[in-house]
Structures are given as C-alpha cells and as structure tokens.
Write a structure and sequence with these properties.
Bound molecules: guanosine-5'-triphosphate, magnesium ion
Distance between the termini: 41 Å
Radius of gyration: 29 Å
Strand order of the largest sheet: 2-3-1-4-5-6
Largest sheet: 6 strands, mixed
Shape: elongated
Length: about 450
C-alpha cells in the first residue's frame, strides 16, 4: 500500500482555506466557515481516497495573522546563534517560548507544514499584493516545502489575478492555480492535482489514482442522478386516475399535489447524490427555497422558465393552471374503437388498455399529467443537475439555475411508452413498479436525458 500524500492548506486568515477544503472533499460540513477572522483555531485533517485507501491527507490550518512580527522574531533568533538553514530556523522558533504564547496560531501552521509533503497557499485574489503577504510567503518558504498558490475569489469583478501571478513569479512560484471554492472551474481538481504531481513527482501515482477516482465518482453521480430523473418522469407520465366526473376537480388537485411531492422527492435525491444538504440551502431564494422550487410546477412562470412557448395545445392547458388532461370515453376515443378493443384485444393489449377502456365506457374520466408539465419537470431537473455539478461545497448562497430553452417540446419514445402503462406509476399502480420493461424504459430514458444534457453542454 502506498503512503498518502500529506498536504497542508495554509494562508492568511479569512482567505477561504476551510472553504477550499469543503469543495475539494465535497463535504459542506467540514470545519467552520465564517466571514470573521481566525475562525479555524486548530489543525484539522480530512482524507481523500478510493475506498478505504487514503491517497491524500489534507490539513486545514489556522489563518496567519501577523507574519511580519513573526518573521522579525525568527530573524532575531537566528541572528543570536549559529547559522541555520530554513527548516532549522523554524524548528528553533517552534521550541521557543513565544511559539506557545503570542505566536501560538502561527506555530500550529508552521509545525504542520514541516510535517507535510507540500502546501496549498490560498490567496484572496481580490486583495492587492501587500507586504504582509510577501512576509507570509518568506516564512512559509523557510519550511523548505513546495508551495502551490491557489487564487480564491476569482469569480468576482475586482480580482487582481494578473498582479498576483506576477508577484508570485518574482519569488519563483510559477505554477499557480485559479480555483474559486464557490464556483470551481470545470476540471479544476484535475488541474490542481496535475500541478501538485509536477511539484512532487514522488506522489504522482497517488495523485493519478485520485484523479481517476474523481472522474469515476463524477460519472457515477451523473448516472445515479439521471436515473432518478428518469424514474420521476416515468412515474408521472404513467400516472392515470380514473374518476367519476363529479370527483374530477378534487382528484385533479390530488394528482397535482402528488406530482409536486414527487418532484420534491427527486430534488432531495439529487441534492443527496451531490452531498448537498437541503438545510444548508435554507438561505436560498430563487429558484430553490429551502430545497423547494419557488415557482409552482403548475404555473405559467414554470412553463416560461423551462422555455415552453405558451401557444396552444398542451402548454396552454398547463398554463391556465390545470396541467392535467382529462380523457372521457366519448371525447378521446370513438365508442366503436373502445368496444371493438375490449372484445378483440390480445392479452397484452387488454392488460394495458382493457381496464382503461372499461373505465371510460362505465362513465369514468381519466386524469393524466399534461405533456407540458412533463416537459417542465424534465427541464427543471436537468437544470438543477447541471447547477449542482458546478456548485462548490463551500457555496452558501442560493442555487442559481440558468434556465435555457430546452429545444423541441415533444415527448421521447420511452415517455410515450410509459404513458400507456398506468401500473408503472407509484401513484396509481403497484403491480408494474418492478417490471423489467419499466426498468428498461427508465434506463433508456436516462440515456436520452444524457444525450440532451451533452448537447446542451456543447
Ligand atoms: N464568494 C466567495 N466567498 C468565499 C469564497 N471562499 C470563501 N468565501 C467566504 O469567505 C469567508 C471566509 O472563508 P473561510 O473558509 O472561513 O476562510 P478561512 O481562510 O478558513 O478563515 P480562517 O479559518 O478564519 O483563517 C466565508 O464567509 C466564506 O463563505 C469564494 O471562493 N467565493
Ligand atoms: Mg478556516
């Protein structure tokens, strides 16, 4: 078994060290994050690895506050004795009285760095390159460990990335990573591990392994999420309630309520798959509120958000607040077809349609969820999936979703198939929930959804 790489995360106070660790480990509950200075008071470890094997141990450290004073102190200690190299000077400081006193926080950082294989030096890229940061870097350099500067807060308008790159290059730090912990770049982790592997070739196998593991995890998350969305859509497309005309209004509300809850369950599962906690999202406004959509599914806003034009047909029906199609024997199918069907259908045909035909003949109406609503559900869930994929686990604001037109509004083949299988819906049937044709339909739909996602990404 190979040894895990030990990586310290260091830097000035309040630059986002703990936030970076939350994003790198996809753990929104790691450590404490706040806008106050000196939030992290102790070194804390968190590991990344494939299965049981830790490949990378990351160490969160307290923020450096007064590097200027500490550097002067270290220089003064060195001047009073024999000449020592950098790490020996830091060791000398760590055994001094002040390492347990006024420089206690700084001592924790330097002690951890001496024990580590390398460090990420986190920078708030909105800050100018001040003397205090140069002193921090001089002190950290004394430990003799490779430093990889990570520019955080790079998504804002007032960042000084170019100035930082220039200043870092002047002290020999040429490999610099831009990694905003709230909106990390696509493949940001891969770039970070590539740079670390250049700084520490001896840990290259662990870092390559970690990259593979990350890619695999990301594929698994996507597949699990697409299957959840496909389950939702099949469940809703297949739902079919047979009601007496006088119960139609109440049952319509019942159907809408069930669909809303079913959508919420899918949102919760997508958040879970991506390790986001819905209580963490309580500060959200638009469009997710406390993990719930703020726009009602059965509203014209939801249709517009999903890029559905409010023309005629299904979309217009959904827009006036129904979202439910009502089918009656006389309206949707000729009586002759119905009766002929009942008499002459095959066993398979009778199972799918026989009961429905009987319902219609016996004066029942059938309620189904409108095509436009299915389309809104699909668009909302796919957009949510994309937003979650790009969201850092340090993010504390609302989940923002860029709703774009989803192209054609026609139902794909697996959904059309689900339409005629009421027993596939958890609302109206239980008998068909575990049928292999249903599972095949869900899997096929997940593949269609993946191709739609990939087309939208390009
Ligand atoms: N917008 C934005 N905010 C961030 C980012 N990174 C951190 N923050 C915020 O900055 C503040 C400080 O973040 P922390 O992660 O606590 O910083 P730290 O470096 O660990 O701070 P100390 O432990 O006090 O040294 C928090 O309010 C974070 O939410 C970022 O990339 N973008
Ligand atoms: Mg911290």
């Amino acid at each position: 078994m190979t040894d895990a790489m030990q990586l310290a995360v260091v830097g000035h106070t309040n630059v986002g060290k703990t936030s970076l660790l939350r994003t790198l480990t996809r753990n929104p509950r790691f450590g404490e994050v706040s806008p106050q200075h000196s939030t992290t008071r102790h070194v804390e470890r968190i590991s990344l690895g494939a299965g049981q094997q830790a490949l990378l141990n990351l160490y969160d450290t307290p923020g450096l506050e007064d590097a200027m004073a500490l550097l002067a102190y270290v220089e003064q200690l060195a001047a009073s004795g024999r000449s020592l190299d950098g790490p020996a000077r830091i060791e000398q400081f760590l055994t001094s009285k002040d390492a347990g006193g006024r420089f206690e926080q700084e001592a924790k950082v330097l002690r951890q760095l001496l024990k580590s294989d390398a460090a990420l030096y986190v920078i708030d890229a909105r800050e100018p390159v001040l003397a205090k940061y140069r002193d921090e870097l001089t002190l950290l350099h004394l430990c003799g460990k490779p430093l990889l500067p990570v520019l955080n807060f790079t998504r804002g308008p007032d960042q000084q990335t170019a100035l930082w790159r220039e200043a870092l290059a002047r002290i020999g730090l040429h490999a610099v990573i831009c990694f905003d912990s709230v909106s990390p770049p696509e493949d940001g982790e891969q770039g970070l591990y590539d740079s670390l592997a250049l700084l520490r070739q001896d840990f290259r196998p662990q870092l390559l392994h970690l990259q593979d593991w990350h890619r695999q995890q990301s594929r698994q998350r996507q597949q699990a999420a697409l299957l959840q969305i496909a389950e939702l859509l099949v469940d809703v497309a297949a739902a079919r309630l047979a009601v007496k005309p006088e119960q139609a209004t109440t049952e319509q509300e019942h159907l809408q309520h069930w669909v809303r809850q079913r959508e919420q369950a899918c949102v919760a599962r997508l958040l879970g798959i991506h390790a986001f906690d819905d209580s963490e999202i309580s500060a959200n406004d638009i469009p997710l509120q406390c993990g719930r959509w703020s726009t009602d599914l059965f509203s014209s806003e939801a249709l517009k958000d999903a890029g559905i034009k409010l023309g005629g047909g299904a979309a217009a029906g959904a827009a006036v607040g129904l979202g439910v199609d009502v089918m009656t024997g006389g309206l949707s199918l000729g009586m002759g077809t119905l009766v002929g069907g009942l008499l002459g259908g095959t066993a398979q045909w009778s199972r799918s349609y026989g009961k429905r035909m009987l319902n219609l003949v016996q004066g029942y109406e059938e309620l189904t969820v409108n095509d436009a609503i299915l389309w809104v559900l699909q668009a909302r869930q796919l957009h949510l999936l994309e937003a979650l994929r790009k969201r850092g686990h340090a993010a504390r604001d609302s989940i923002r979703i860029d709703l774009i037109s989803s192209g054609e509004n026609a139902l794909c083949a697996p959904l059309k198939r689900a339409r005629s299988q009421p027993s596939w819906s958890s609302l109206t049937g239980t008998s068909g929930l575990h049928e292999s044709e249903r599972s095949a339909c869900v899997a096929e739909l997940a593949t269609v959804l993946l191709s739609r996602l990939e087309a939208a990404r390009h």
